[in-house]
Structures are given as C-alpha cells and as structure tokens.
C-alpha cells in the first residue's frame, strides 16, 4: 500500500491536512492515527472496532490495544461519517483517561459523612434497601433518574424498561435535556417525530451552508474539515454564520462571500422571523410544494410580518442589509444545508428559533434531496440513542405518551399492565426532577454518566440539592467527580472501550463499539449495574418473569430493535453482525431499506399523522399542549407544520446593576467537565484553566487588560477568572463552562471558576432546555495577571487583533507542545465512484499501489 504519511501536531493544526475536492464528488479519505508516546504500529497487539465518543459526530475508529491497555486510536477509512479522519479531542482524548490512577475501582458509600470504599453487595444492598422502603412508603414517584448522552443504546433501553415497566416512574431524564432536547422538540413540532432529515453528504452538494449558533470548527472538528474541503475546493458553497462571536465560521463566511450575522445574545427569534419574512416579501417560496406538503403558511406569514429588516436590526444590533444579504443567499440558492446548535438550543425561545430554520427550508421546498437539508445537531455522542430509547422523557421508539395505542404497544412488548407505564402526564424533565429532589418529593435520585454539579445551571443550588439529606443520591461514574463527591453511594463504571454497545450519531449512523480492554478493579459496565439493580429489586412482568430478561449487550440490542418495528426509528434490519461491517449504517434499516437510509423525507411525506406522530405539538410561546382532537382537526397527515411565534425579550436582560450579557460555551480542546480531556496532557495544556472573553470596547472602560484577574457576577453567583480581550460582540461576555474542581488540589477555589455559578434556572417552554446562553452580569477588575489568559489563541477565543499590547504577546497554542500530541496521517488513494456521492455508504475500494 502506498500512502503519504506525515506527522503533525493536531493541537496546533486542528483540522490537519486539507483534501479539497469539487462539488458532487466523494469526500477523499484521510486516515488519522494517534499512538502513545514511543509506540508505533508494530507495537500494537490488536485494533478493535469502535467510533469516537467525544462528540455527536461519531467518527468511525479502531482502538489500539497493547498489553491489555488502550494505547491509541485510528480512523476507519471506509466509514461513511468520517472517511478516516479524527479531530484533536478524538485523537488525544479518547484513551489516556482509562488508565488514570484516579479511576474509581470500588464502590463507595457514605458513612458518618464520609465516602468510604466498600464491596458491591454492600453498595447495591444500600441502594435496594432505600429503593424498596421508599416504594413501599411513597410509591414510584419517589424515584428519579438523571442519566446521560454518553452511555450506550443498550444501557438506555435497559434503564428505560426498569423505570417505565419495573418501577413505573415518570421521573427519568438525561443531560440530553441540557444538550439536544430542543433538536428533538423542533423536529417533533415541524415534522411530527424526532429524526434527522439531512445527511452529511449534503455538504458535497449544497450551494450554501447556514450555521445557526454553531461553532462547528471547535465542536465537530471533523465535520468542519468536510466543509473546508468544499469551501477550499472548486465551486465552493457560501457560508452564513449566526453567532455573537467572530468564530472561524464567521471568518469563513467572510472569505466565501457569505455573511456573519452577530445578533445580540438572546435575540435569535427576531432574526429568524426577519429571514422568514424576506422569503415572503421576495416570493422566494416553492408554492406548489408548500401547498402539497405543509400546513400553516398563512398563520406564519402573519406572525413574521412585523419583522422588517430595520426592526430586526434594531432588536438584534445587526445591519439591516446584512439580514437582506443572508436572506437573499437562502432565497436564491437551489440547495442550502442548515446546521443548528447551542447558540439556538440553549438560548431564549429555543424551540421557536429552531423551528424557524425548518420554516425556511419548508417554504423553499428544500428538504429531502441532496444538498438541501437540515442538521439539527446533537452534541453528545449518544444523545440520539437516549431520545430513541426513552431514558430521557420520551417513550421508546418515538412513541407518543399521549397516545394510548402507543403505550399499549409497549405494554405488550414488555408484558406489563398498561397502567404501569407512566402516561397520565408529560414525562418529568431534568430541571423539574431537580426541583422535586430539592423538596425531597423525589427521595431517591440515581445519576449516571453526567456531572450536574458542574454542568447544570446555578451550581450553588445544584450542590445544595445533591448534598442535602432530603434526597438519597447514587452516582455512577468513571471518576470521583464534583457530583460523586456529594453522593450517598458511588458506583464505579466501565467506560468506552471497556464494554460493548452501540451508538448513533447526529445523522442517524449507528456504530458498534466493541470491548477492547477489561475495566479497572471492580468497575462494571452500566448495563451490568442496571441489571444488578433490576434483579435485586425483583421486577417482574404479568407472568412473573423478569421484566428485563436480557443479560448481554447483544440481547439488549435485539430487544430494542424488535420494539422499533413500525416506528420511524426502525432498527429491525440491524444486528451486531451487520454492524461489524466496514461502516456505520444510518437508520431506518429494515426490509425496505436493508442498507440504511441516507436522508429522510425524500418523498415529502412526514410522520405527522395523528395516530403515528410522536407529539400532538405545542404552542411555541407558552408550551401549552395541543390536544389529540385539535391535532386531528388540522388534518396534517403526512404534511409538515409551518409554525411560528413572535419574539419576546429574554427573562434577564442587562440592567444598571448587571450591564453586560453573559453567555457560555466550549473550546475545541476540552470536552464538558474535562473528566477525559483534562487527563490528556496536550489537551489540558492547550486550555488549562477557566477564562472569560470580553470585547475591547467593554474591557477598555473597565480598565481590564489581557490576562487580568476579574470578578464576574450575576444575581446567582460569582467567578474569579482571567480575562481574554477577545472576539465576542460588544456588550457580551463569553465563558467556557468546562472548569469545575475535579483536581483535588483545586478544591481551594472550587466554586469560583465554574461558569454555571452565574447561569439561571429557566428553560424553554417547549423543549424544557435550560438557557445557558442568556443571562446578565457585571465584570470588575481584581488585579493584574502574570501573563495572558489561559485561553487558546487559534480558535474563537483568540485575542482581538490589535486589542492591546498584551494580546500581541500571547503565545500561540500548540506548536511547541510535547511529542505526545503527534498524529500520523495517511492519504490513501480511493477510486472516486460518483455513485457513492449521496449513497448511504462510502464503501470505497482501496487501490493498492
Ligand atoms: N471541543 C468540544 N466539542 C464538543 C463539546 C465539548 O465540550 N468540547 N461538546 C459536545 C456537545 S455535548 C455539544 S452540545 C456541542 C455544542 O456545540 P456548539 O453549540 O457549537 O458549542 P457552544 O460553544 O456551546 O455554542 C456555540 C456558539 O453559540 C454562540 N452563542 C452564544 N449565545 C448565542 C446567542 O444568543 N445566539 C447565537 N446565535 N449564538 C450564540 C457562542 O458564541 C458559541 O460560539 O459540542 C459538542 N462538541
Ligand atoms: N454553562 C453551560 N453549561 C452547560 C453547557 C453550556 O454550553 N454552557 N452545555 C450543556 C451540555 S450541551 C451538556 S451535553 C452538558 C454536559 O455536562 P455533563 O454531562 O455533566 O458533562 P461530562 O463532563 O461529559 O459528564 C459525563 C460524566 O460521565 C462520566 N462517564 C463517561 N463515560 C461514562 C460511562 O460509560 N459510564 C458512566 N457511568 N460514566 C461515564 C464522565 O467521567 C463524566 O463525569 O453540559 C451542559 N452544561
Ligand atoms: S469530530 Fe467528534 S467524534 Fe469525530 S474525532 Fe472529533 S470529537 Fe471524536
Ligand atoms: Mo451537549
């Protein structure tokens, strides 16, 4: 095999070598590989099939194993998602945490106020004792579960069955509520059910790409590489960026002749209404398609009518002509791809703004064909599975809790009484679960694979809830996190590579991740832990048989696949054997689509029938539910909904006391609360501590220079961090949310650097997603720092150019960092078969030379 191999430092060079290609051709392959320092390929004992678990992109990957340890990772060239690529997090962050000396290896229980090591029988015994007592005294509503977007499908499904068929509690949700609840909600409102309509292959065909509140170059680096390979190739698409910071997306928008719209934080819906209005005003409407495939156009026209470009400019602080230009790009392109993420989902009026993106596509008839698609993004690698399996406040298989037939289907599958399955009210969302735990009405809260003490809004309140005596808390994690420290029982879990299971990425591609190594000490897979609990509780069906009969991941998968029959999320054609092939496979996979489905709604038929849909819908302003009768009266069957809402000001807006807007987000080098990336040396070094970004115009009058220590306060709390004079819009302050105090040495300033000290307990009325991106704050200078802020310089967090002298002296991220961050890249030659473009697989034939 002849390949060009190069090594590079992917902290410095985030996207790696470009492979530009013309429109309509297959994205070339490039295989990225990382091995621990001092190792090369000959040292690897075996490669084990998996996919990267550090974001929703789900890049196909093999895990390198040596002497029973995970020592590296390599992209899978034939994988439809990534064509061999991996980004910096995937490369450097996937494996080092596993052998970290501070892994949890034994269960812990609280004795006399302290967590002490114990054995599994004692730990599970304590859990079961409390669980049984509360069930007897107060019934199932005393139980709550807060799980993740990072477990495997088999684990969510098992947990969902335990909760719904075993216990019968509606109080189960995931951190997916903080993450992609709005994505699911927006799909349900517009199309009748969850499910990503678009495909990554749309990138190869589109004329323009709109990114709404999505900093893709830092959060799905491989997907951005795919876009760069089009924008740097022949006949490139134009980019439109909607983000209050000057991100790399914004720079690419300028470079490609697109537009950067930087709306004032919290004003997305006004901007969206303005864009939709422009389509109406200019007649950029696919009238016949709209008449045949949608309902609601007249109502929408009335709602957006007041949002003239000037009015929008006034609300959003943008240029009216920029709005016109962006709308023209949408209106005059044949094929637009839109991506939406947290700048919308975690903002004020989240669902309404995200639905407005669908409105643009529906009005132009731009859905279901190559290049014309919507990617309501996910964030976490397995968020999609939680939404599918129903450990998140949905019923498994995109079933409607308000439709008795759907509930009966599950009762039959599980052989339980239909009344056991909670369906008398909407499932309880995570923010409400925390409120019930606060009062003690939930007295038993089981948290798995999430770290709410850092990641939920209003940290001080969350800490108080978790630490209090009113609620018994179980935490199941890899590490003694900030959350685990507050628990009554801590269970040591096996992580990625230490267990087998499947997960589904943002464009419905299912991957199998095989166990590569043994978990450390007594750590067990989450599946085994849930099964242990189910067995100990003795949950049985109508015939006295165990309600959870399976024992292995594969059996759990098969049970799940069976329950998806007849639903949009159809896995019936998938099996472990099939997933051991060259590529992940996008659902639905069934008799009709044995090789999977690249894009949904190609026939313009949507799952909106009253008897089929996942929800009857909501009012986008109040969240009020639409009844079955009202839904039936709209006779939507198969047609998509055009829904709108007027803009309303955010819950908290700047005041004299708190004059600046506070918003939060991510940096490319860190993942969430850093339990993995904080343990990978080169990633940790690239962004080792918290900071805030201020615009030069705001920093100047406050006397703040690059690297100065500042105090940032909101009505809920304060943090003390260093300041980056950066690229955020004037009037706004941006903070990364990654930094808790997981390093015990950091305990001293534990509560003073976590962005969520400042955020609010408020949520979107429809998706119930908390608004991490809209609050007010004030900033004061404390003292000079001893150098620049600990923020990267090659990302959206870069210093504002020419802001001041200190910024000019900020050292460049990467470059000099250790050899541990080197990556081998091969560019194999692939036969470019045009039929592969737009097909569900890239089963490229490798040409050996
Ligand atoms: N490196 C890295 N990658 C990740 C993750 C990670 O932690 N680190 N996490 C993964 C997960 S779970 C998720 S959910 C995704 C999130 O991925 P993104 O949504 O891309 O990331 P964020 O930084 O949270 O927010 C995106 C942008 O929203 C902008 N924004 C803030 N307020 C507003 C507003 O009012 N309006 C608009 N239009 N924009 C606004 C911010 O400036 C920011 O650039 O990333 C995934 N990938
Ligand atoms: N201010 C602000 N806050 C935010 C956001 C924001 O943009 N701004 N974003 C929100 C979003 S989108 C998200 S997704 C959340 C993320 O917030 P969290 O879910 O709290 O983030 P993680 O650090 O990924 O936590 C996952 C935990 O699971 C553990 N873990 C990993 N794998 C396994 C496993 O296989 N089994 C078990 N049992 N444990 C495992 C890890 O060690 C870690 O402690 O944060 C939210 N919070
Ligand atoms: S883009 Fe996401 S899934 Fe792919 S390598 Fe990076 S972190 Fe992993
Ligand atoms: Mo997320």
From TrEMBL:
Pfam families: Molybdop_Fe4S4, Molybdopterin, Molydop_binding
One MF annotation (Gene Ontology) recorded for this entry: metal ion binding
Keywords: 4Fe-4S, Iron, Iron-sulfur, Metal-binding
Chain intervals for the UniProt region annotation (Disordered): 783-849
Transmembrane spans: none
Domain 4Fe-4S Mo/W bis-MGD-type span(s) in chain numbering: 45-101
Low complexity bias locations: 792-812
Matching PANTHER family: NADH-QUINONE OXIDOREDUCTASE SUBUNIT G, RESPIRATORY NITRATE REDUCTASE
Protein name, as recorded: Molybdopterin oxidoreductase family protein
